[in-house]
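Hello, quick one for you while I still have it in my head. A protein chain has come my way and I'm curious about its shape. I'm sending you its amino acid sequence along with the C-alpha cells. I'd be grateful if you could look everything over and explain what you see. Here's the protein in full, and shout if anything looks odd to you:
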Amino acid sequence: MAYDCVKIIVVRDGSAFLFSEFGQQPVNTGDVVLLGANVLCGSEPESHITVTTIYADTDYVLDQVRWQYAGLLQDRLDAQGFAETIYTEAAQILRLGEDRAGMVMPWLDELVALSIDGNFVRHYLRMQALWFQIASVIAPFITVSPVRISRSQRAHIRPILPRDRRFAPLRVDARRAAALLRENPARRWTLEALAAEVHLSPSRLSSVFVEAYGKT
C-alpha cells in the first residue's frame, strides 16, 4: 500500500519479508522500516509479526527539515528540494537491534494511547516530545546522501539573511506597509507605490521591511 505521508514502521515482534523499492528484504524484531510518501510496500509474515506505525504528514516532516537546517535554508520552500537531495533512498530498513528498539517501545505505547484518546490540543506538547524522543533514536540510522551541506557552501550558492535578529519594536512605517498589503490583497502593489504610501524611498522601505519581517 502507499500513502501520501512518511511512514515509520517499528517491528515489535516476529518477522516478515518486505517488498518495496529495496527489493525483497527480511525484517525482524528491532528493525524499523522507513517509507517515504507514496512509496509502495508489501509484506509476507513468516509466522506472525507485530508492528507499530507512525504516519507523519509530509508537510510536518518538511517543517522539521526546515528548522533542523535553519542555518542553511532560506525558507520553507527550500526544504523540499533539500530533503530530496539528502534523503535519496525512499525506502529503508533501519537495523536498530532489539535493545535499542526496546528504548522506544514505552514512548510508542504512550504516543499510541494519546492518539487514541483524541484530545490533541491537550496532549500536543507531550506527543511532540514523545515523537522527538523516538526520532532521536531512529535518525542516526537513516541513510543520507554524501552531499556537502556546510554553511559556507550554502552561503556561496545562495546568500541568505543573517539569522541573528534583534528583538525591538517594529517601525511605524514597516507596520503601515504590512497593514496596506493585508488590507488590499487584490491590488498589485509595486515597491514604489508602497513606498509612496509610507513616505519612504523604495530602497529605504525595502531595508526597513526586511529588518522588521525578514523578507520582502
